[in-house]
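Form 12-C: Joint structure prediction
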Amino acid sequence: MTPAAAQLKGFRTGDLDLLAVLEAVLARAPKVLKSGLPNLAFVRAANAGLQQPDDESEGHGFPQVEFWLTLARELSLLEVEGDRLVVSAAADAFYGLETRRRRDRLREAWLDSRLLNEFALTPELELPGLKRAGTVDVATDVPGAEAMAAGRRAVLQFVSHLAGETPLRRLWSQMQAEAPGFVISHAEDASWRNVYYRGIRERSGRADVERSGNWQIVEGALIAFMCELPLARLGWVEFDRKRGVVEPLPETDEGGADFEIIVQPSGEILVLGDRLDAGALFRLARFALPSPEGRRRRYQLDKKYFTDALGRGCSASGLLDFLAGLSRSPLPQNVRFNLEDWSALSERIKIWPDALFIEREGVEDLAALLPAALREKLGTTVLSGGHLGCPMPGDAELRQMLPPRRKLLDYARRLPPVVAPLEGLGLSAPSEDLHLRARQVLALVATRQSADRWELDQALVTASAKAMGAEELARRLDEALSRPLSAPLTVALRSWTGEFPVPFVGQAELFLCDNPVQAELLEQQPRFRAWVERTLGRGAFLLRLGGAEAVRAMLKELGISPRTDPRKP
Amino acid sequence: MKFHGHVGVIETSDATTLDEALAVARCASRVLARPQPNLAILEADDARLVIAALEERGLHPKVIR
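Section 2 - Result
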């Protein structure tokens, strides 16, 4: 293999490995555990998609998947949405770059990585104090992020100056002689404090490795790991572990891709070819669900997944043209029809789940009021009625873009109460402060009298309370009011909603006695109880119709003449 | 002109489709505003409920994030 071809293979392999990890994220949207890492099932699936998967039975874990996940995080290609790991919009931009530029960005990300610690991934070594998040909590010689970044550059420098194919042992000897402390200081190895590589053991070893005579076991293993994974996969070197040789590769242009796809009538897409283009495949994976099966690349056209891609701003015709461009034979008619149909159906209902809604009030022309550059930057869509909408930009970014003297009503927070009760049934709500939540409440309970004045409407209140429940309506109204309703208005409103039962006003037959013992003794009499409709309180009884006469007769039999004036005891 | 941030916006081809979509998600009573018959503004969480309810029924709206 010529050096140029080897480099193509080297970086192309790395490019496809990263793609395999991202495709596994797209296909599974794995849950992120408390440690911040995705679950084991995902890691296994991602590992199976690599060009040379790690063997789980060897007990080294999955260093390649961890490596690519870390680089993807460094480049913000992944983000956590809720509790799921997902591919970010930055990944679309990343795969829009040409291969060489993509490689350069990955190289920079590796060289400067603060999240990666190759010691933790080196199969020959074990770090007993290492936590899952890559931190150590015991006295250790494992280098920190700064030292690792410097160490990577040192290894790269030595490797790039090698003259052709070089045995790894010679590289070790050269580095040990010229830069023994490229990651771990050996300046005080003679000291009693520096007898061991603290916190670093050989795999399955029982004690920390002694410093004396073991440089190649520790630093050597690290150099071998760097040559095998980052340096080889990012196209700097060709590394042959069996022969133990490393060869620097010259900077050359990447060759073109050579592959094709077959689109089945079932919507399954198969990829054929040796020289795959990760950029094109990532674009494919963004609208056709990847179904990784080891290294075989299969994708499935799926309605939801396809409409999600349309929601990200892709056009159906653009995606169809892209598919047709990758396929040597014409797309099956039913596939073309399905994609066009899904697109048309999805256009019937468009949803911005977290949007900036720019409301047009009155007859104003938003296109004239808002500069075209701002509208373009926000990516606004003209909605029915001339309103504008767009996905919600970052809060800080939006504050910078907002026109002067315009404030943002942020519905992710509690909005200020802007409705004030007036005399009688009136409510005041200045239109410039009126947000949608307050407007919703007003629409439920009041009718508009003028620009800023509303009036409570009994019929509306009753209907709204029936639809959503009196308590919910009262809660919403409380939230919208800048001060509490007056007592009479509260009585009225809560009576309209049905929360307060209809009161009684009129004549009734009552029995009142002021002594509680007397009341209790009478209550024990069946003749008395038969006439009691309801006990209103201690010693106060509402009697049935005709009850007053009957009770009076009963008392007369006991020689008691009841009084006729309820006010005087 | 008012700027309403972090709201859910639903626009449909016609008013009936919007009514149906809101009914499916049982969100009709929680609509903040309907500036147009085919345009509804909701709380962001309610808009997500509408998406989930529609997708559960095999309808896949265009979701712009």
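Section 3 - Comments
The two ends of chain B are 23 Å apart (CA to CA). Residues 44-56 of chain B form the longest helix (13 residues).
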